[in-house]
Amino acid sequence: MRALELSTFALTLLAGGMPWLFACASAPRPAAAPSGAAAAAPGGARSGGAAVVPGHSGGAAGDASAAAAEADPHSFARPSEVAVEHLVLDLSVDFAARRLSGRASLRLRSKAGADTLVLDTRDLDIQRVTLEDGKTEAPFTLGDSVPHLGRSLAIRIPPGTTWVHVDYATAPDAAALQWLTPVQAGSALPLLFTQSEAILARTWVPCQDTPAVRQTYEATVRVPPGFLALMSAENPTTKTADGIYHFRMPQPVPSYLLALAVGDLAWKQLSNRSGVYALPETLERAAWELADTPRMMAAAEKLYGPYRWGRYDLLVLPPSYPYGGMENPRLTFATPTILAGDRSLVSLVAHELAHSWSGNLVTNANWNDFWLNEGFTVYIERRIMAALYGKDYADMLAVLGRQDLEDTLREKGTDSPDTRLHLDLAGRDPDDGVSDVAYEKGALLLATVEAAVGRERFDRFLRGYFDTFAFQSMDCRRFVAYLKAHLLDTHPGLAESLRLDDWIYAPGLPPTAITVRSAAFARVDQAVAAFAAGAPPAQLDTKGWTTHHWLRFLRNLPRPLAPARMAELDAAFHFTDTGNDEILDAWLLLALRNAYEPAGAALERFLIAVGRRKYLQPLYTELAKTPAGAETALRIYARARPGYHPITRAAVDKILDWRE
Ligand code: BES
Ligand code: ZN
Prior knowledge:
Elements: H1 2-14, H2 18-25, H3 35-40, H4 64-68, E1 82-94, E2 99-110, E3 116-121, E4 125-131, E5 136-137, E6 140-142, E7 151-156, E8 163-169, E9 177-180, H5 182-185, E10 191-194, E11 214-222, E12 228-231, E13 244-254, E14 260-263, E15 266-271, E16 274-278, H6 280-289, H7 293-304, E17 312-316, E18 325-326, E19 331-334, H8 347-354, E20 362-364, H9 371-389, H10 391-412, H11 436-453, H12 455-468, E21 472-474, H13 476-486, H14 494-498, H15 500-505, H16 519-532, H17 547-556, H18 563-573, H19 581-593, H20 600-609, H21 613-623, H22 627-640, H23 646-656
Parallel strand pairs: 1-11, 16-17, 17-19, 20-21
Antiparallel strand pairs: 1-2, 2-8, 3-7, 4-5, 4-8, 6-7, 9-10, 10-14, 11-13, 12-14, 15-16, 18-19
Helix pairs in contact: 7-8, 7-9, 8-9, 9-10, 9-11, 10-11, 11-12, 16-17, 17-19, 19-21, 20-22, 21-23
């Protein structure tokens, strides 16, 4: 069934679906105000001009390039026929039922004669579909459920239809939603947040869930009084008395950047265009830790041009947040595990902020080219860190990243197709493609190109790239063509000598990769060598070490280590009691590998308190290696699982072969 859909899509493209998109994309129409949508956005917000963003090409679905690119294997949508260009949400949030319900109104841009709008859904209860003024019902069909993808929602529309309204409700276990009880949230009130990337937006909004389609949006969100609601949009900074919030997102975004959070949240200003949201008792700590955010914005703008999203705020979530961070436009979501108390983990902010250029502005057209989002972002993250804290600091990050990459290549095997930058994820969960390859091999390619052409030229190139393709999607083929035309071709033979095609389309790491060295780490490596030779930890020269020195140290200790030597390290450096989760994670992994039992209680506490998948996956994997460890893992997991996000649950379920 899936194959059929794709081939139909391919045929549509071949039959010349694209010229139409070229024609339409530059001529956005004023919107008619349908009664349904007008009701959803009172106060005249539904001006009809909301979707038209001055300065770029109409803000509609799909730029022509996206339609010309390979079809997205993770979406049922057929945007070359009918594309969503603007979304109006009217949602009520029911904490008791763990349900969002209401209406999604979609404004369409269609190819002449097109009579079907195809949306993505997963676990949605679709109640009713109406057209235009909300009075005419439209026939719709839900396709069979496909693993990872959910069900297509095909809606018959008279050609030329502008508005489609879908009345629906989410499922209590919708994969994008985490509903935290007050205890889980560490709050007087429950808390809800979404995570739409990669293809989970369809579990809370019926949409064209492909990064090749962009839409502007507005929303009305109804929550019980006492809660603050936030979205990846223009946000309030204080609670309303009636619990009704209106949002507007004038820049067009792909569905994976739709986001919502609701809870007892408060806001504190960092600068005139940035601030932090968090639970009231975390707010001061969060604002202190993230105080360099405005400087990071300035550094990024200096390199890559103006920040185009208005405000940049951060939302620090409870510890069960499954990721380190998520680049929701205007409002990065972040784990509280970055609140180390010494600002040493703020490269995460640099990373999520960098996505305001790489990813949110120029977007991977589908998940096979995920590295165009993440590899670029890691590269930019390090440039921002270098601008604020110096080259030595950024070099430490690069060296740690290179080691992660080598580990991943070893684990996957250097001939594994999943070590290519351009992936083939058809038929798989795009989450399977998330690895250090996209992040670190991607960043290393850009650093290698930079070294070949010089920093100044490379900076100019990247800035031109973001300006040229702002608010559009990008795939490998077009990126390579642009890179050659605007940078490499002025150095005859450079693309070949860099082995550019191997970097992108072949597994492993080409020998042309540059090597970054860190003088700071040379000192750490001496300490490791001294310790390996038997020196007692207290005699090691660790003066002035920061989080990253310690990470280098912990990752490079000799293996195996006798529990007695682990105890010596612990006595000297108090790793088991550290308040730095990044260091604790590295230490707990070591404790497991070396059967260092005194860390057992800290491990259990960590596994129950923290839901960050990056930490949990390796820890549970290590535990599962021995029968006794697996037993411990299952015992802890039974307690911890209810507090984990569905995304983390899915990952750990797989490791422990857990069945409910
Ligand atoms: N966009 C990603 C998070 C993501 C990737 C969510 C794929 C779903 C699917 C985000 O920018 C990210 O990379 N987060 C990292 C932190 C970063 C500092 C490397 C994370 O969460 O660990
Ligand atoms: Zn990222």
